[in-house]
Predict the structure.
Amino acid sequence: MKLIHSTAATLLALLLTLFIPLAIAGPGHDHGDTAPQATSSALPRFTAVSEDLELVGIVNGKLVTLYLDRFKDNSPVNDAQIEVEIAGSKYKAQKHGEGEYEFTLNDTLKTGVIAITATIQAGDLTDLLATELDLHTDESVPGLRSAWKTIAMWVGAGLLALLTLGVMVRFRQKTRRA
């Protein structure tokens, strides 16, 4: 009778181990030496700063949106003439909103480090801002295969623990009978 109870308890523990969701640290949550990878699809950006101005650019395919503000008080610059040299071509940005300017590239940008130069004329202020845009492809995104390996490892460890528990129960039953 005791053997039936211990076998039923072992099977119940086995079933609970298999069906309880595992708390596994996924990619970016392991707090290891590697930096977590971004999971969103943020658009490529560049910034250029001088003593007077700050320029932020966002590349969305062929459309480049520029945000221009004064460095000291972060107020938008609305009356600027902006000429941008990017990937060997020159573009004149058109005012689109408050402190916002846009232009369209001739071709989509290639991967790699791209030098960007912006010449800005705002009233009596003339400034030359230079920066780089680092475009790269997402080479390695942790896949499903590594997640399954981790789950299999935890299931195996759980089964080993259950087997050890079963052996301990059997040993205890034998010592009680003797």
